[in-house]
Amino acid sequence: LSEYTYSEFNQSVNYLAHHLYNNIGTNQRIILAYPPGAEFIRAFYACLKSNNIPIPVYPPNPNFLKKDLIQFCKIVESSNVSVALTNNQYNWATMFANFKGFYKYKWPKLDWIVSNKVSSKSKSVLPTINSEDIAFIQYTSGSCSFPKPVIIGKW
């Protein structure tokens, strides 16, 4: 469990937002693959502040890759993303699962950014947020079919 004061949280979000803005740009769709917790909230707000579009996805469980990875791959494919954010803990688990499974299940090609390793202290100005932009994309659970996107706006 992470605890932040508002000031610490805002500073941490800004570091990640600057990293995203300086390295990815704006209006990019970004998968957020986190277990529940403060790192997910930090990444979500950093995407919003950098004018990118977060796509929260419950990360595939390394112990149930056959089922979970199929859902994850469908979301990646339909959302047309190339970047994913995660934390150190989940990144390690996915690397271990790949080693353990000898690549039995194919992970989608994504540039993974481990957000709790990012510490950009850039002084660049973050982009202006437009109220007509997409705030985030939420996928349905896919319990009856494949997950479907629901677009949430900032308006």
The neighbouring-strand order within the major sheet is 2-1-3-4
Uncertain segments are none
- Total DSSP E strands: 6
Q: Please state the overall shape, judged from the principal axes of the Cα atoms.
A: globular
Helix content: 25-40%
Q: Strand count, sense and closure of the main sheet?
A: 4 strands, parallel
- Mind telling me the C-alpha Rg? 16 Å
The secondary-structure element order is HEHEHEHEEE
SS summary, helix count: 4
Termini, distance in Å?
A: 33 Å
Whole-number mean pLDDT: 85
| Class based on secondary structure composition and strand pairing | alpha/beta
> What fraction of residues sit in β-strands?
15-25%
Description:
There is one protein chain. By secondary structure, the chain is an alpha/beta fold. The protein has four helices and six strands; from the N terminus they run αβαβαβαβββ. The strands form two sheets. Strands 2-1-3-4 form a four-stranded parallel beta sheet, sandwiched between helices. It has a two-stranded antiparallel ribbon with strand order 5-6. Strand 3, helix 4 and strand 4 form a beta-alpha-beta unit. The longest helix has 18 residues. It is globular.
Features:
155 residues, alpha/beta, 4-stranded parallel sheet, two-stranded antiparallel ribbon, 6 strands
Question: Would you summarize the structure shown here?
Answer:
This protein has helices spanning 6-23, 38-49, 65-79, 88-101; strands at residues 29-33, 53-57, 83-86, 111-114, 134-139, 149-153. The chain is α/β, with parallel strands linked by helices and 155 residues long.
